[in-house]
Amino acid sequence: MTKENAPNYKNLLLGLLFDGIGMLSFAIPGIGEFCDVIWAPVAGWLMTRMYKGRIGQAAGVFTFVEELVPGMDVVPTFTIMWLYTHFFSKKK
Known about the structure:
Blueprint: H1 9-23, H2 31-50, H3 53-68, H4 77-88
Helix pairs in contact: 1-2, 1-4, 2-3
């Protein structure tokens, strides 16, 4: 594996942190759903900053919607995106 396509572990650690923040709403019943209204646009924006291009934009929209939908906070979208980027996408 060359340095250019080596996994970016900084993005993995940030992704784990952001996924954890997104899951915190389960810890505070009632107030947690209000926090999701604030966190959803922030999470979507962070995703577009971490992953550039069309895939980052699509992931940002998905993250935004996932954070707004009640009960979907358990989906670790940042971690899934990191895995997709480094192991499942085909590099051209």
